[in-house]
Amino acid sequence: MELSGSGSGSGGSSPSGATPGSTGRSSSPGSSKTRGSGTTSNSSTTTDNVDANFETGDDDWDNLYPGGLMTASRSTSPVHAGHYSLRITAQGRSQETGSSLLGTDSNVSGLSSGDTISAWVWFTGNSSTVLKPIVRDTSYDNHPAATTNLKAYRGWHKLTWTVTIDDVQAIGIEIDVPAGQSVTFAVDSITW
Question: Taking the model in full, what pTM does it have?
Answer without folding.
Answer: 0.74
